[in-house]
Amino acid sequence: MTNVKLQGIRKQYGDGSEIIKGIDLEIQEGEFIVFVGPSGCGKSTLLRMIAGLEEISAGELYLGGQLANEIAPAKRGLAMVFQSYALYPHMSVFENMAFSLKMSGQNKSQIETAVNKAAAILQIEHLLQRKPKDLSGGQRQRVAIGRAIVRQPKLFLFDEPLSNLDASLRVQMRIELSRLHQELATTMIYVTHDQVEAMTLGDRIVVFNAGRIEQVGKPLELYEKPANLFVAGFLGAPKINLLSVVAESVADDEIVFQNLTGEFVQRSKVNFERKLQKGAGYTLGCRPEHVSLVDIDQGMKGVCQFVEHLGDSCIVYVGLKDGTAMSVKTQQLHRLPEKGQEVGLAFDSAHTHLFDEAGLRM
Ligand SMILES: Nc1ncnc2c1ncn2[C@@H]1O[C@H](COP(=O)(O)OP(=O)(O)O)[C@@H](O)[C@H]1O
Ligand SMILES: [Mg+2]
Q: Tens digits of per-residue pLDDT, 102-144?
């Protein structure tokens, strides 16, 4: 187990493009932290810098309190698992897992003990004599993780390890990774572009965008209090509903919002952290589960575009007059509107998010 500290970390490639633009972050010992962000935002680059596979252009990296910028990858005490499993095809599962221990000069009984223990944790004991080609995708990924476990690293780095698996296997492996973290209690950094993986796996999530950190926090903190429009839009599926509004009246106990065509949107009793300006424009955000369908004369008017059935609930897609698309998650399956029908929408004021013109939370 080890803690990790990043201080002013930057990465510039030879062509002058800056990919990582100053990262400050402390990861606690034993923490499971998830780096999430859109493709190309620099997650893999940062992970590879922590691993020592990519040079750090500026800033300091500390592993277990020790400055690590110049420490060779093999001496950093970490193990990395990639999206591509990169198993040796001619070796058995046992030999694949034993390889690094053999290279580091451990004896036969030490190696057997370590491999058997890792195989037991991953429930692949019955596969040890097979070759990678005789394994399923999920089993191969488990071997790749096993190869990391046997080295007893102080820090695990995962770069989108489940991306090649089908949906149901991904769910299963997610649960197994959580279990693995509980069992080993080793610090883990896990990179993904998948917000569901981030929400379910992380003790804390770091949301990246274009080489910068947008927000760091526990999954629910980020979901319930996104610091800005980017985080609000990135976490949650279907996406949060966003609407341009004007604060039509601002009193101590109540704020009335209108949309840009002057239609009433919401009467809000929420105490925002910052003071609102009467007449100012904001973006109002409300997640699909916090919007409800009401009588037409009671809410914002819209037209039902279509209804998506999820089994336990439905997503009703509604188009507003000004063209804004909204989604409503409802469990009232017996009271669904027809396509083309006019509906009223009400936003739960206790779960309304408000952002200023710069996109920052009010
Ligand atoms: N060797 C390189 N030279 C120049 N640019 C690179 C190099 N490697 C990666 N990049 C760029 O860095 C950006 C971040 O890449 P990456 O860290 O792989 O993103 P992510 O893992 O978040 O999808 C991308 O725009 C990519 O094109
Ligand atoms: Mg990547």
A: 998 999 999 999 999 999 888 899 999 999 999 998 899 899 9
Ligand minimally distant from the alpha carbon of residue 19: 1
Ligand 1 site-directed mutation target among 15, 19, 47, 234, most atoms within 8 Å of CB: 19
Give residue 224's pLDDT.
96
Dump pLDDT digits (tens) for 21-48. Answer: 999 999 999 999 999 999 999 999 999 9
Q: Is 211 in the pocket of ligand 1 (CB under 6 A)?
A: no
pLDDT of amino acid 82? 87
Residue 13 near ligand 1, beta carbon < 6 Å: yes
- The per-residue pLDDT for 160 is 94
Residue 29: CA count within 13 A, CB half-sphere? 5
Domain boundaries, the chain: 4-225, 241-355
Ligand 1 pocket member 42 (CB < 6 A): yes
Class of domain 4-225: alpha beta
State the pTM of this model. 0.92
Q: Which residues contact 144 (CB under 8 A, 6 or more apart)?
A: 81, 82, 85, 86, 87, 161
**Nearest alpha-carbon partner for 218 in 200, 232, 243, 236:** 200
Ligand in closest contact with the CA of 42: 1
Which protein residue has the closest C-alpha to ligand 1 atom 1? 13
Query: For 187-228, what is each residue's pLDDT tens digit?
Result: 999 999 999 999 999 999 999 999 999 999 999 999 999 999
CATH of domain 241-355: 2.40.50.140
Tell which atom from ligand 1 comes closest to the C-alpha of 43: 22
Coil, strand or helix at 361: strand
**Rounded to whole angstroms, how far apart are CA atoms 74 and 55?**
14
* Farthest CA pair distance, the chain: 78
Q: For residue 41, which atom of ligand 1 is closest to its CA? A: 22
Does ligand 1 have an atom closer than 6 angstroms to the CB of 41? Answer: yes
Task: Identify the nearest ligand to the CA of 82 by its number.
Answer: 2
Residue nearest to atom 20 of ligand 1 (CA): 40
